[in-house]
């Protein structure tokens, strides 16, 4: 029995963003940025009426909207104990690794993740895609898995894959 998977990765499923990552329990990288690329895969049986796993159009729309929301922003993890965040007077005051930054609120995307690693970004993007698809196009029975790839620089990427129940 064959298995099927569709994947979308377009020239518009990219985003340029700044971040810093904590590592080794108590270290934090300097603020820096990447030109990220995102891709999305859905696995499952073929839809008997259409002979495809999933329509590409809603996949592309969902992934593009999420990438657009992250583009040219600072990605700020709200669940990282090494990053102190205060939001006052239209700005985010961020303290980490002995440094203090002030960012206008329109330049920041707060993400409910513990770290802005490529792995955590892939998981967050995937959860957002899944929620959008469930809320609009729906996820039909027979879909088995969703996978998101986030490339933060050439040859350096992370994947997050989880099972789906239509």
Molecular structure report:
It is a single chain. The protein has helices at 56-70, 118-135, and strands spanning 4-8, 14-19, 22-23, 27-28, 32-44, 73-77, 84-88, 91-96, 99-104, 108-111, 143-153, 156-163. With 166 residues, it is α+β, with helices and mostly antiparallel strands. The longest helix is centred in the last third of the chain and has 18 residues, at 118-135. The protein is elongated. The model has no long low-confidence stretch (mean pLDDT 94).
Spans of at least 5 consecutive residues whose pLDDT stays below 50 are none
CATH level-two architecture: 2-Layer Sandwich
Assembly state here? single chain
User: Averaging pLDDT over every residue, what do you get?
Assistant: 94
Give the strand tally.
12
Question: What is the tally of helical segments?
Answer: 2
Number of discrete domains: 1
Strand content: 35-45%
According to CATH, the homologous superfamily is 6-pyruvoyl tetrahydropterin synthase/QueD
Radius of gyration: 18 Å
Succession of helices and strands? EEEEEHEEEEEHEE
The helicity comes to: 10-25%
For the report, how would you describe the main beta sheet?
Answer: 7 strands, mixed
Bulk shape = elongated
| CATH topology title | Tetrahydropterin Synthase, Chain A
- Supply the CATH class: Alpha Beta
What structural class is derived from the secondary structure elements?
A: alpha+beta
Distance between the termini: 20 Å
